[in-house]
Amino acid sequence: MITKLLIANRGEIAVRVIRTCKKLGIKTVAVYSEVDKDSPHVKLADESVFVGEPSPTSSYLNISNILEAIRKTKADAVHPGYGFLSEKTEFAKVLEKEGVLFLGPTPESMELMGDKINSRIKMEAAGVPVVPGYNGQNQDPKNLQKEAERIGYPLMIKATAGGGGKGMKRVYKPEEFLSSLESAQREALKSFGDGTVFVEKYIETPRHIEVQVFGDKHGNVMHLFERECSIQRRHQKVIEESPAPNLPVALRDKICQVAVKAAQSIQYVGAGTVEFILGKDEKFYFLEMNTRLQVEHPVTEYITGQDLVEWQIRVAEGKKLSDLTAGKAITQNGHAIEARIYAEDPENNFLPSIGILEYVEFPDRDFLRVDTGVETGSEITVFYDPMIAKMIAWGKTREECTSRLRESIDSTVIFGPVTNTFYLSGILSHEEFKKGLTHTHFLEEQTIAFTPEREVQADAFSFAAAALSEKKKSSGIWEAVGQGGFW
Predict the structure, then answer these.
(1) Pairing mode of beta strands 284-290, 270-278
(2) pLDDT at 168
(3) Per residue in 441-454, pLDDT tens?
(4) What is the value of pTM for the model shown?
(5) Which of 89, 196, 204, 90 is nearest to 155 (CA)?
(6) Exposed/middle/buried for 288, CB within 10 Å: 0-12, 13-18, 19+?
(7) What's the rounded mean pLDDT across residues 144-164?
(8) Structure letter (DSSP) for residue 36
(9) For 411-474, where are the alpha helices, taking DSSP H only?
(10) DSSP 8-state class, residue 118
(11) Which helix (H) or strand (E) holds 242?
(12) Does 292 qualify as catalytic in the annotation?
């Protein structure tokens, strides 16, 4: 049994883990950098240890300092959260050597799934569909054209050394292939000094569908349904939800079962997410597997009524999955959507907006959960991700859930850095979103207002001013960060 858990992370995920530990009666240890010494996660933990200067490499990524904190506090387990050391094989190996439980998969699983090429090879061998393509050494145009015919059109030609769209061509017809290839190779050579390209199937209007999986130490693997994460900006998720809208039941079941097969093929232990790209032809392909808890895990908790951090703890202790479910089937109940509130300026190319949070007030209402690691007076710095909070709503239907989340975002009061709240509200209000017609190019193709009209701004400032004048001191830190309550 775990008696003391060190959280090798900060912010809202550290607060989130502490919440479950308090419920289970497990003592907690927070670690903090110089700028985080007064953060909520430090105040909430039973113990706290300073691990270095603000730079992540000096603190939250410094394995030696984290290890010293573990030894000092005699913590018998570590939760890595997400980001930082959560997918560092070296960290998991060090803990294994120290005899400290790591709430994550084995180092071998992390290493395999962290390698894009080897994980693709492994998944193909396990019968998991991957995006058809060719990345061989034979760059003869006739060979590439032959491979293109095998893959099928439309397809993409991409520079092996590429990025930023350079050396990338979309080809719809066979007669366009050779001229597109020549153009792509010329551009790749000019941009990267390397004209090598690879070819892969182009997935039209793709959707990002991922499946929450869990494995125990007894060889059992199960899924906890899918999440749709297609609303992305620069490949970063903005809105996540479950169930995925407009996804046929039979296709949902198939995707979830393939995700279980993927995890079983590597004897996976702990929480993981298998990500797929889904085309409009309803064919889906393996993208990658994240060997940790995901930022968006609350939507799964909402629709299943399960506490996934508790599952991580119990699995690490050696419990079987059947012990966690008490032999009952896990079902989906209602609909949940999560929006990420960031300190960023949508009108200034979404640049992070740093500074003191002069006043923060989230709505407190039924079927709304706010996961945050900040409070009034906290500072958004240049050192870490500028996320202020995750706001998650639940509803009996998607329509009810969307409405509840939008109203809650609109009711949020944040004074200080510029935030993306109006932008999030605009996404949730968009007619295409409300119809569930989402895909990964949604934010590129649709027009979403960045800021409110002046009249609306004036109303918001009046409301905020009134809130400030009646500002109440919270009676405790749990009141400040919110208790949640559905799960």
Answers:
(1) antiparallel
(2) 85
(3) 999 898 887 666 55
(4) 0.88
(5) 204
(6) middle
(7) 86
(8) G
(9) 421-429, 431-434, 442-445, 454-469
(10) H
(11) strand 236-242
(12) yes
